[in-house]
Amino acid sequence: MYFALTDEQRALAETARDYLADRFDLTAVRAVFEDTAGDGHPAELWKAFAEQGWLAVLVPEENDGIGLGLLDAQVLARAFGTGAVPGPWLPTVLAGEAVRLAGSPAQRAAVLGPLAAGELVATVALRAPGGSFDQSGVGVTADAGPGGARLTGTASPVEYAGVARTAVVAAKEPDGGIGLYLVDPASPSVTVTALDTYDGTTRLGGLVLDGATGERLPESNAAVLAELNRRGAVLTAADLVGIARAALTRTIEYDKTRVQFGRPVGGFQVIKHTLADLHVGVLMAEHAVLYAAHAVDAELPDAELAVAVAKAKAGDAAQRATAAMIQYHGGIGYTWEHEAHFFYKRAKRLVATFGDAGEHLDRIAALSIDA
Amino acid sequence: MDLTFTPQEEKFRSELRGWLDANIPAAWRDPGFWRTVPDDEGFELRRDWERRKYEAGYGGIAWPTEYGGLGGTPGMKAIYDEEMALARAPLSANGLGLTFLAPTVMAIGTDQQKRDIIGPMLRNEVIWCQGFSEPGAGSDLAALRTSGVLDGDEYVVNGQKIWTTNAMHGDKLFALVRTEQGSEAHRGISMLLIDMHQPGVEARPLRQISGASEFAEVFFTDARVKASECLGGVGNGWKTAMMLLSFERGASGISQYATFRRGYDEIVAAARRLGRDTDPTLRRELASRLVELECLRYHAMHVLTQVEQGRDLGSESSITKLQWSEAYQKLFETFDHLLGLDGVVTSPVEDLDLASLQYEAFWTRSVTIWGGSSQVQRNIVAERVLGLPR
Fold first, then answer.
1. Which Pfam family, giving just one, matches this sequence (chain B) (predicted)?
2. Which residues 304-363 of B have a C-beta within 8 angstroms of A?
3. CA-to-CA distance for B155 and B139, rounded, in angstroms?
4. In the prediction, which pLDDT does B112 show?
């Protein structure tokens, strides 16, 4: 029995944390957060991601990647949550996963090498407004045209749609199935609209396709879409766990030194008990993300349940911890100048990304009540 | 990550499973069985069964062989606990002795104590009770007042203990007694090993909200105990008790998951029988209970890993206690929400007997109190894990 990260995985976490603390701290995050007209994609940071191999982690070695698993990737996602780090890491990595899982050898060669090297920013467009993160939420249809598939419909919100050079678009097909297509967002039949969002640690956009050409990933189907959504949910849960831990740690440090009524407020039992419960919740969420990542890597029979548990638990922990961060900093925590709102807003967005709590609880119910 | 057990551990599992299959009577697997048997008779059945289990080689799984144990790995102990839960094996008649007292004796007992205590305990010849809490010393255990005054080579003990498990069937009691008169708080306490079969010791059962009487009060009126029957040295009782309580670790979470998950499945089955398994709000509530149970299972694997790596868990065991006890209690709150008025009666419809689940629901109100209440555990987590000021 070994339920823990390996030394290598721990070293990876440390490298990521140290780099971010050193080179991209919350001051740098704030610059991106407040530059609402900017693309939210700092070039220096991306270059570092590529140099460190953080974009190559899931890319197979034959495509010039490192060929590690989701357990390794979640180490990075967690570090990015801890630092509230902007940039298109998650959508790029997931687009790579789609190509790895369902692409032809030629597509894999064309996409994965440049992606691992940091030369290709990509994204995934898997649901329409109002949709859930499954087959039913897909808002694009594919029709067979004379020169290949033509895609029509909407996908939104799409992370970093504005800077991605390739989008993996999920589409309903004439036979009732699902296909994944590589689409060039710059093509004339695709309209990309920047979407305003309160979370300045990312950039979101909408895609409207009007007969756009798409290059089908030949092995794609509904099961691959489900697998992609599962992987997205695990990495999002890892980011949430990173957020939750950062919010809790920062709150504890503050409440150890903030004096009211002649003593540190962290000594008051009502605050201690809340923080203790939060710690238990965040720790359980950390366990759940580790287990889910491993369950997907090892194709354990309860992988689907584990992913839903991890996403539901991580979202809950992050929501509570970031709300507590505001509350237990008092008035200062409610100001724009304080960093609490970076974590709070990022958590709010990610809680709803790749399935909100309701969707995942419904899945858990279906797996455990109806089975 | 490697969530598998070794081939030797899996071999142990299959042999143990075979033995349990052959040696647990079918009637015992009925969840209501133990409530149909009178207390005394049930206790003797358990005592005898456990002795046979020991004779078959399944006692003291992770204890050194020199003490009559199996010398097994922490993984084997986890497997043992899980298989016992899955097979609905009866609860140990000597749980407090086996879990707490025996490892403490192995660590700090005298040679005489090692000889006198461990073997008879394994064979269930001596049933051990724990005498810690008092009416005036619950969460604040150091406020205890039961006194022991030296008279020749014996202590004369006066006072009262409470919440004593198995006291009505117990033979001996490891008790915290204030042996230094006038001492306060943690000082001046000794752990005495008191014979319960003497005129100065009287046990009276306490009836709980479930109607059962697992606990009792124990009164000492000039009870006598030899000065040599002190564990860990005179005046060292607090230190000895802290060491003793630290042995509640390992991977009990894996077996708790097995038990609680069965509760979850039984609750779901009852709801289905009443057509109450389709309400979307209640389904989500149930699912959120399962989230906590699954987290308990993952946490148990984390704990087992730490034990196998030789790390000291220390105050982390308070996290484990909070997770299992709160999750278990909330699961049974959902039982009430799911079944509504039908959950009030023992058998709302034919072929559905809720007695065991109702009993368990009452039991869950106790788990956030005994062994350190949730409030005490939160203080420990806040102060010793998070470093918040006292």
1. Acyl-CoA_dh_M
2. 304-305, 308, 319, 322-323
3. 26
4. 96
How near does any CA of chain B get to the CA of A357, in Å?
Answer: 9
In which band, very low, low, confident or very high, does the pLDDT at A324 lie, cut at 50, 70 and 90? very high
In this structure, are residues B122 and B59 in contact, taking their beta carbons and an 8 Å threshold? yes
The residue from B248, B292, B326, B333 that is catalytic is: B248
Confidence check: pLDDT of B316 > 60: yes
pLDDT the model gives residue B251: 52
Is B248 an active-site residue? Answer: yes
Question: What are the pLDDT digits (tens) for A106-153?
Answer: 999 999 999 999 999 999 999 999 999 999 999 999 998 777 899 999
Check whether A248 has a pLDDT greater than 60. Answer: yes
Q: Residue B6 gets which letter from DSSP?
A: P
Report all structural domains of chain A as residue ranges with CATH numbers, in order of start: 7-121 (1.10.540.10), 123-220 (2.40.110.10), 223-369 (1.20.140.10)
pLDDT digits (tens, 9 = 90+) for A149-183: 999 999 999 999 999 999 999 999 999 999 999 99
Averaged over A69-89, what is the pLDDT?
A: 98
CB-based contact, A338 to chain B, within 8 Å: no
CA distance A331 to chain B (A): 21
Instruction: State the Cα–Cα distance between residues B355 and B333, nearest whole angstrom.
Output: 15
- Calpha distance B390→B384 (Å, rounded): 9
Question: Does A294 sit within 8 Å of B75, measured CB to CB?
Answer: no
pLDDT of residue B312: 83
Mean pLDDT of B212-220: 94
Amino acid sitting at position A189? S
The answer to whether B385 contacts A277, with C-beta atoms less than 8 Å apart, is no
Q: In terms of C-beta distances under 8 Å and separation of at least 24 residues, what long-range contacts does B364-370 make, across chains too? A: B364/B328, B364/B329, B364/B331, B364/B332, B365/B209, B365/B329, B366/B208, B367/B324, B367/B325, B367/B328, B367/B329, B368/B325, B368/B326, B368/B329, B370/B163
Taking residues B22-43, what's their average pLDDT?
92
pLDDT class of A336 with cuts at 50, 70, 90: very high
Check residue B166 and give left, alpha or beta (phi > 0: left; psi -120 to 50: alpha): left
Task: Provide the chain B residues 272-311 that lie in CB contact (below 8 A) with chain A.
Answer: 272, 277, 280, 283-284, 286-288, 290-292, 294-296, 298-299, 301-302, 304-305, 308
Encoding tokens for residue B48? 């005898």
What percent of chain A is predicted at pLDDT more than 90?
98
Classify residue B232 as left (phi > 0), alpha (psi -120 to 50) or beta: left
The pLDDT of residue A1: 95
Where does chain B show beta strands of DSSP type E? 128-131, 147-151, 154-161, 172-178, 189-195, 201-205, 216-226, 230-231
Nearest residue, CB atoms, A266 vs list B280, B296, B388: B388
> What is the DSSP code string of A270-319?
HHHHHHHHHHHHHHHHHHHHHHHHHHHHTT-TTHHHHHHHHHHHHHHHHH
CA distances from B138 to B49, B162, B378 (A): 33, 9, 16
**pLDDT of B250 higher than 90:** no
Q: Which amino acid is at A206?
A: G
| CA nearest to A316 within chain B | B288
Q: Is A313 on the interface with B (CB under 8 A)?
A: yes
ipTM of the complex: 0.97
* DSSP state letters, B77-120: HHHHHHHHHHTTPPPPTTHHIIIIIHHHHHHH--HHHHHHHHHH
Inter-chain CB proximity A276 and B389 less than 8 Å: no
| Complete domains list, chain B, with CATH | 7-93 (1.10.540.10), 128-235 (2.40.110.10), 252-385 (1.20.140.10)
